[in-house]
Design goal:
Keywords: Cell membrane, Membrane, Transmembrane, Transmembrane helix. Its main location: membrane. It is found in: Cell membrane. Helices cover 52% and strands 19% of the residues. The protein contains twelve helices and twelve strands. A six-stranded mixed β-barrel has the order 3-4-9-6-8-7.
Length: 408
């Protein structure tokens, strides 16, 4: 062990337990420990929230989505589908028509986001964990078309799956209609479906109605046009790589986005909030670490005779400075180790036992999400080291200078 650290360790463990300097040092340790623990826990919560949002996106959004660069629709041809299927990683292609529509059930009506999907939708299995009532089937016995409805739409229209008499009516303005008269049925195309299942993910998806592609195409007069193609990639393939390969192959006529790109704004907001909180907590740790500054300053006064003796024995100002820097490092490191250990323990308990509940009844998530990333723990440790060096340098330099003056 280097001489400066040996002396610093001796100062740390041989202090008078009742001295005011010792009390300040322990307050500094406690402050650093609490701040470090808070940073580990809060950063892990943000990681968990980001991971939770990705799970939510995966429940509804496609791995990769292809949409037209201009306009709302594009023609789907066999050559286009062949290009997509020939791309490595593509497992399923779901043809999609999506637009706003008017939904009516009995005497209730509301605007919904209507999404028409082909038969591959049932193979996706995306909404399995979000289904709260009924089933995900889009076709019943005899070819009866069914609709899968979001919980928000069900509540707005008072839909009952047990009612086999009242249909769910979907209305869409006729092409070429210049005026929209809500009281006139002639201004709308109309299809009737039977409610077959209810799903709930989060409020942003609460206005969706998922219906068979043929009925939606007839309603919106899309014929062979589609508004998007949703791609499910095979296991072992990366969404971003498949997305880039498809974008390169399809050209500028199409916009190809992976799931993270589809929700880039929300993910960016979470990361920005995480950064802002990390900076805020770093400032809190800095405020707590100012006690190290006062502790070292008073320690330098208390050990004035020791410093004189060390100079008399041939010590250099650099050695004296390193002694007090090491003393501050020991105080901060002790608090950091306790804080990191406490933060990791709290996160582990939450991940293992779910101590804090989200208060949600869906099967998608029950406990507050937490995810430990070792990079964040390393980042927290580096922040503590930097803060320690900053607050310890001034009293260490003053102790060295004071010793030189006394020596002269």
């Amino acid at each position: 062990m280097h001489l400066s650290y040996r002396i610093a360790v001796r100062y740390f463990f041989s202090r008078n337990k009742r001295s005011f300097i010792s009390i300040i040092a322990r307050i500094a340790m406690a402050g650093v420990a609490v701040g470090t623990m808070a940073m580990v826990v809060v950063l892990s919560v943000f990681n968990g929230m980001e991971d939770l949002n990705r799970r939510i996106f995966k429940t509804f959004d496609a791995d990769v989505k292809i949409s037209p660069a201009e306009g709302k629709r594009f023609k789907v041809t066999e050559s286009l589908l062949g290009q997509i299927r020939s791309t490595d990683g593509v497992k399923l292609i779901t043809e999609v028509i999506e637009d706003n529509a008017l939904a009516r059930y009995g005497s209730q009506q509301t605007i919904v986001r209507l999404k028409g999907v082909d038969n591959t939708f049932e193979q996706q299995g995306q909404l399995d964990t979000a289904l709260i009532e009924g089933s995900l089937k889009l076709h019943g016995n005899g070819g009866t078309p069914y609709a899968v409805i979001a919980e928000g739409v069900r509540n707005a229209l008072s839909i009952s799956l047990e009612d086999i008499i009242t249909p769910l009516e979907l209305l869409y303005p006729k092409t070429g209609s210049k005026t929209l008269n809500l009281t006139s049925s002639e201004a709308f195309n109309q299809v009737s479906l039977r409610p077959g299942g209810i799903f709930f993910i989060e409020p942003r998806y609460d206005d969706y109605v998922i219906a068979p592609l043929a009925q939606v195409a007839s309603l919106m007069q899309y014929q062979g046009d589609r508004s998007a193609l949703e791609i499910r990639i095979g296991p072992g393939f990366d969404e971003q790589q498949v997305s880039k390969a498809l974008a390169k192959k399809l050209g500028e006529q199409f916009v190809v986005k992976d799931r993270d790109s589809l929700n880039a704004d929300l993910l960016r907001a979470i990361r920005f909030e995480k950064l802002f909180v990390a900076v805020t907590l770093s400032l809190i740790i800095l405020v707590a670490a100012t006690n190290i500054f006062f502790s070292l300053s008073m320690l330098a006064i208390e050990k004035k005779k020791d410093v004189e003796m060390l100079y008399a024995l041939g010590a250099t100002p650099a050695l004296i400075r390193r002694i007090f820097l090491a003393e501050g490092a020991i105080v901060a490191l002790s608090g950091a180790i306790v804080g990191l250990g406490g933060g990791i323990l709290i996160c582990w308990l939450q991940m293992t036992y779910g101590l804090v509940s989200m208060g949600m009844t869906t099967s998608l998530v029950e406990d507050y999400p937490v995810k430990l990333i070792w990079g964040d723990i390393l980042f927290t440790g580096i922040i503590v080291v930097i803060i320690t060096m900053v607050v310890s340098y001034v009293p260490a330099r003053r102790a060295a200078q004071a010793g030189q003056i006394l020596r002269v």
